[in-house]
Specification:
The protein is of the alpha+beta class. Helix content is 37%, strand content 23%. It contains 15 helices and 15 strands. It is globular and about 80 Å long. The structure holds magnesium ion.
């Protein structure tokens, strides 16, 4: 087997999160069976302390059942706003270890730590530091599982609880998963579990060694994927969300452009496209930037294209202006972009033009052209609707279409 580029995924899951927060905040509850979320008759258990789990109380269990099992339990209502605040502290700690974080729940996340190992050392060491940091910040325990993929990391985390730290090295993956009961596999619920049991499949090893054709006949097209998972193979990436830092649109002209009408047309189209995307994602921004790549090469520089040594160097010129208020209004962005262009007085043709908005904030922003105050935001939405229906070329404010030969859109995110 060839060694694929090695990944290290960490699954972090707070132990009995809501119940642990209550026990932390109310010392008199420590050591007692604390059950959160089932305080009303209709309630469902949101979290049970380890003391309550001894009685068989589990998350998602109906409140009446939890009361039968644990009549002397301390039943508390969920204080969700508080748990969300603690969750933010926990996730802030995670961010000290890697930007590649996929939040799964308030108390749970996948972290791709592959790129962080150079800084923190071995997976074991990073994990120990992370656990310590969470405890320092919140006085709560987090369990972690580390493995070459998400599936195995989560299993390692779950099986190490409470206060776990389990590292599964690549060579140990098969041996780790093989004896596990099949119900531990993602995608195997009660129905499929029963079906597999009827085939004599009880463990991961049973599933991975089942004759593939027979299995497909029995359980359908999921068979191959499930068999891969049962071998501990999982290629799903950690899907990190990052706040965007800027929204930009740019184009390279087929031939260099200096004519102001064509430049204005391009800036208008970019401004509208940026505004549309901002509104779609519910952002606005304060800083408008235009960039232009000058048409006349200034010598050559080392190429980023490996097939050639050098490439002509066209200087990139940028001009920015920061507005007093955020905007997502294409007319405002366009006006500033054209002003920046005029003020730049480049005096030579350009090969590329771009418009971007940065200094982003949430919401569509307050700044609009006086002309459009009031009905303007409705106009923006109308333009969005028309464009969605007829495509980007269906409408164009003020001037004609620009040639958009190699369109580029960017959404720069933080790291
Ligand atoms: Mg948890």
């Amino acid at each position: 087997m060839t060694a694929a580029a090695e990944r290290w995924i960490l699954h972090a899951d707070m132990d009995a999160f809501y119940a642990s927060i209550e026990q932390r905040d109310h010392p008199e509850l420590r050591g007692k069976p604390v059950i959160v979320g089932a305080s009303s008759k209709r309630g469902v258990v949101a979290a049970a302390s380890y003391e309550a789990r001894v009685f068989g109380v589990r998350s998602a269990m109906p409140g009446f059942r939890a009361r039968e099992l644990c009549p002397d339990g301390v039943f508390l209502p969920s204080n969700m706003a508080h748990y969300v605040a603690v969750s933010a502290e926990v996730h802030a700690v995670f961010e000290r270890f890697t930007p590649e974080i996929e939040p799964i729940a308030l108390d749970e996340a996948f972290l791709d730590i592959t790129g962080s190992l150079a800084l923190f050392g071995a997976p074991q060491k990073l994990a120990a530091e992370l656990k310590h940091a969470v405890r320092e910040a919140t006085a709560l325990n987090v369990s972690v599982g580390l493995a070459p993929n998400k599936l195995v990391a989560k299993l390692a985390c779950t099986l190490g609880k409470p206060d776990g730290l389990k590292v599964i090295e690549p060579h140990a993956v098969r041996g780790f998963v093989e004896p596990l009961p099949i119900r531990r596999l993602w995608g195997v619920g009660p129905v499929l579990g029963a079906k597999l049991a009827s085939l004599g499949v009880e463990t991961f090893a049973d599933l991975s060694s089942y004759e593939p054709g027979e299995l497909a006949k029995a359980i359908g097209e999921r068979a191959a994927e499930l068999q891969r998972l049962a071998r501990g193979e999982d290629t799903r990436p950690v899907l990190a969300y990052r706040e965007p830092k800027s929204y930009g649109e740019e184009n390279t002209f087929e031939s260099d452009v200096s004519d102001r009408t064509r430049v204005t047309a391009a800036l208008t189209e970019h401004a509208e496209a940026v505004a549309r995307r901002l509104r779609h994602d519910d952002y606005s921004g304060r800083t408008v930037t235009i960039k232009a790549k000058l048409g006349r090469a200034r010598g050559r520089r080392e190429s980023r294209d490996a097939s050639v040594a050098t490439e002509p160097y066209y200087p990139l010129v940028t001009r920015s202006r920061t507005l007093p208020q955020a905007t997502s209004d294409g007319a405002v962005i366009r006006r500033i972009a054209v002003e920046l262009w005029d003020e730049a007085k480049l005096g030579e043709p350009v090969r590329l033009l771009g418009v971007s908005l940065s200094n982003l904030e949430r919401g569509t922003g307050g700044l609009q052209l006086e002309l459009f105050t009031g009905p303007k935001s409705a106009l923006g939405k109308t333009l969005d609707a028309i464009t969605e229906r007829f495509g980007e070329r269906a409408i164009s404010r003020a001037v004609g279409h620009t040639e958009k030969l190699t369109p580029g859109r960017t959404r720069k995110r933080g790291t």
